[in-house]
Write a structure and sequence with these properties.
Length: about 850
């Protein structure tokens, strides 16, 4: 009689804590096996799968996106397995995992039973998959496992006798075949056993092409006859080693793999050989190490580049070369490398003094240097930029000085570099007053140039380390006419233009002599301020006149000049660049209380937020007057609604644009399209059409002691409601249940008697009971609760323009807290529509 033992075979245990979110099972449109199917447990030394490994599935929606929080139900449909849990929940990747154990009462095979087959069904939202897990019993005579795998073959030959080779991305048409059968009944073949490839390197890799069904990704299952068909798919490039693993699970290498059997035996020549052939190299990709900043002598992080083919696949085994500009700026660890299996090469380096202005390190393909990539590295605190400031493009007559000096600026990462000796090199018929000039505190250095006797083009190059800046100068022939004795402005001075626009008139000068105008004289034009020119110089015509066109800066407004000069004489044009006109659209108009776009009505306070609302684009802001009427014009800024000037409360800088706060004139009639015009003195004008509503409620807010904006709420004792601060002078002061509270609102529409623009309510209104009462039907409440405030009064706020005061009784059943939402809605008089509600605000309410 055979020995009977009770063995407990357990998988790796995993602990799942509280679910992070409610189950989303209904979204599951597809359930697929993720890992663990086709395991074969056995207990012999050659079999490393002696503990069941966890199984998992992946849940995806109709768009194949992972479903998080889906409940997966696990059911043993055959065999004797104990599940760790009847249900598990998918994680952030849509994966749910199950553990299981098996009480095994039969260790040895009988004539009719060679192995035990167990099946587990995973299901979610009517989607399901089946796992088959097989236990191989032991032969009573040989003590060998009953299930045994035969060595893999390829094209009728043992796999060990061939080397698989194909271009990267290829799936071979001939499969690797593996037969899983064994002793006794197992000799008929064992189905649903996993066969997979385990690679011994991260690149290149082989995997089994998917054949559908319930196989793990990258593996295949044996058919009912015990035959597995694996069509290899090539990834990466270069030479590699792999193993064929039977009855196991995925692994990073053979040393960590669990399996029934592996081919070849681990350690035997390191696995089967294969080669993944990339396409021709076409480019280098920089992987890491670009744009580093270091100190002289410091070793930087490695520079890593990857050589790829047209499909982006890495290309291995190619020789590369490295070069440095300027030469000697860095010390390289090696000059030639060969791309590895990931197509990568690396280089370590340290920066030398010659890298003070930066260094460019280029890696290129030795056989085709046009395939390359360049790393830029910088020395901290040293030279980064040498730029021209002025003097480029000038023209001078032979033998005369160029009118403007040649000015450059030198910078490092911290800003201008002072006291640096800049070198100036000349090519052509030009002489300089200095060949070396030190930079000043602004990092600037300058030299003066004089034209030689030979007409043509010359260059002057400023040099700082590896940095250069080149000036191009023109020498014109000496005029044959009379000697000039002066230069005067003919036209073009005292013009204005908006940002980015060309001045309407050219700048025209005339060169004169004692005999009259002089032709053929080169005139230099040098701008200052926010001005650019069409050319730095021009030659006088037969009337002795020369001209250039001037253009206003795109970014800077203000005054500028252009100086026209010849040898010994000059004259100046005065020009002004104006800011752009206002740039308004309907979305520029906001409710002054809620900042809700388009929520404007007669008498309401509004904000216009747009570029170009101030004379200089950024400044000239005006605050509201302490008392008195609001002006209709501020710094030349005027806004009209349907031709009626609006009172301007203030002009200030908002988060992104200048903002004008104003009162929509009470005399404007509500309409779906009302013309609005904005005029800025000297900056142009703009117009658009916007809707003006009958009502546009918005609740005014202020910042309470905790820094949070809440509704302005005045309690019955005249104090402002507040969340409270940290001292006795800033106490906690919520509104109370049963208290009448005043709120301040804009946009409540018509009143009786009618309110007028820029006017207060009658100061004696309380005495004579003639307040400007709101005509519409008001509603105040706490959203989502059904609880309303009892209205006490609603009229124009005493002493305020464009503001309404609404008094409401806080009901006894109002919610309590520091941030209780509240709204105010209104239906205009004579309308049957639902109330127009303000955006929600909050107030603190206490008992």
């Amino acid at each position: 009689m055979r020995n009977v033992r009770t063995l407990l075979f357990s998988g790796m245990l995993a602990f799942f804590g509280a679910h992070l979110m409610p189950a989303q099972t209904s979204a599951v449109a597809r359930l697929t096996v993720q890992s663990g199917n086709g395991q074969v447990f056995c207990q012999v030394p050659s079999c490393t799968l002696q503990a069941w490994q966890p199984i998992s599935v992946k849940a995806t929606d109709a768009n194949l996106n992972p479903v998080v929080g889906a409940t997966v139900t696990w059911t043993v449909t055959s065999g004797e397995l104990n599940l760790g849990s009847a249900t598990t929940v998918t994680d952030s990747n849509g994966i749910a995992t199950e553990n299981f154990t098996q009480p095994l009462y039969q260790l040895f095979a009988s004539g009719l039973v060679s192995y035990l087959v167990n099946t587990i069904q995973a299901s979610s939202n009517n989607q399901s998959v089946v796992f088959t897990e097989t236990t191989s019993l032991l032969n009573d005579t040989s003590q060998a496992t009953e299930i045994q795998a035969q060595g893999p073959t390829f094209g009728g030959q043992p796999l060990a006798s061939v080397t698989l080779s194909a271009p990267v991305g290829t799936q071979l048409g001939t499969p690797i075949l593996v037969e899983v059968s064994g002793l006794d009944i197992a000799s008929n073949g064992v189905g649903n056993v996993s066969v997979r490839i385990v690679n011994e390197q991260s690149s290149p890799t082989l995997s089994c092409a998917s054949q559908g069904g319930y196989a793990d990704p990258g593996s295949v299952l044996t058919n009912s006859s015990g035959l597995a068909t694996c069509y290899p798919v090539f990834s990466g490039s270069g030479n590699g080693k792999f193993y064929v693993v039977v009855g196991g699970v995925a692994a990073s290498d053979i040393s960590s793999a669990y399996y029934l059997g592996a081919f070849p035996l681990p350690g035997a020549n390191g696995g089967f050989s294969f080669k993944s052939i990339p396409g021709n190299p076409v480019a280098f990709k920089i992987i890491s190490g670009n744009n580093q900043v270091g100190a002289i002598g410091q070793q930087l992080n490695p520079l890593i580049a990857q050589l790829v083919d047209a499909g982006g696949n890495p290309v291995s085994g190619e020789t590369v070369q490295w070069s440095v500009v300027p030469a000697g700026a860095v010390a390289l660890s090696n000059q030639n490398l060969v791309t590895d299996n990931n197509g990568e090469v690396s280089q370590t380096l340290s920066l030398d003094l010659l890298a003070s202005a930066g260094a460019a390190i280029t890696v290129s393909l030795a056989s085709n240097p046009s395939i390359s990539a360049t790393f830029q590295e910088t020395v901290q605190g040293v030279l980064t930029t040498l730029r021209k400031i002025s003097g480029d493009g000038q023209t001078a007559q032979a033998g005369t000085a160029f009118a403007a000096p040649l000015v450059v600026q030198l910078l490092n990462a911290s800003g201008p570099v002072a006291n640096y000796p800049l070198q100036f090199q000349v090519s052509g018929s030009v002489s300089l007053d200095y060949s070396t000039a030190g930079t000043d505190t602004n990092g600037q250095a300058s030299v003066h140039a004089t034209a030689g006797s030979i007409a043509g083009t010359a260059t002057v190059t400023a040099v700082a380390g590896a940095l250069t800046a080149k000036f191009t100068l023109t020498i014109s022939s000496t005029p044959t006419g009379p000697t000039p004795n002066g230069i005067v402005v003919v036209s073009g001075s005292n013009q204005t233009a908006q940002l980015g626009a060309e001045f309407s008139q050219p700048l025209v000068v005339q060169v004169n002599s004692s005999s009259g105008p002089v032709s053929g004289v080169s005139v230099n034009f040098a701008p200052t301020g926010p001005i650019s020119l069409s050319a730095p110089s021009a030659v006088t015509n037969s009337s002795g006149q020369a001209s250039v066109n001037a253009t206003a800066s795109n970014t800077q407004s203000g005054a500028g000049t252009v100086t026209a000069s010849i040898s010994g004489f000059q004259t100046t044009f005065n020009l002004t660049v104006m800011p752009p006109g206002p740039q308004i659209t309907p979305s520029s108009f906001l409710n002054a209380a809620s900042r809700q776009v388009g929520a404007l009505s007669p008498c309401s306070l509004a904000i216009i937020s747009a570029p170009g609302l101030t004379p200089d684009g950024t400044a000239d802001y005006t605050l509201a007057p302490i008392t008195g009427r609001y002006p209709k014009t501020v710094h030349g800024l005027t806004v009209t609604f349907a031709g009626i000037a609006a009172p301007i409360v203030s002009v200030a800088m908002g988060a992104t644009n200048p903002e004008v706060t104003l009162q929509v004139p009470c005399e404007v009639s509500p309409a779906s399209s009302v013309p609005v015009a904005v005029t800025v003195n000297g900056g142009g004008n703009a117009s658009t059409n916007i809707p003006i509503n009958a009502v546009s409620p918005g609740i005014f807010q202020n910042i309470m002691s905790d820094g949070v904006s809440r509704a302005v709420a005045v309690r019955s004792d005249g104090s402002f409601a507040d969340i409270g601060g940290t001292d006795q002078y800033d106490p906690t002061n919520p509104v109370r249940l049963g208290e009448v509270v005043r709120f301040y609102v804009t946009g409540l529409g018509a009143t009786n008697p009618p309110s007028t623009s820029d006017s207060l309510e009658d100061p004696n209104s309380y005495v004579y009971n003639v307040q400007n009462n709101v005509e519409g039907t008001l509603e105040m409440g706490f959203p989502g609760t059904g609880i309303l405030l009892q209205q006490v009064s609603a009229h124009q706020a005493p002493g305020l323009i464009g503001v309404y005061e609404v008094q409401g009784l806080i009901p006894a059943n109002a919610p309590l807290g520091n941030n209780i939402q509240i709204y105010i809605g209104i239906t205009p008089s004579g309308s049957s529509a639902s109330p127009t509600s303000s955006p929600y605000s909050t107030i603190p309410i206490g008992q």
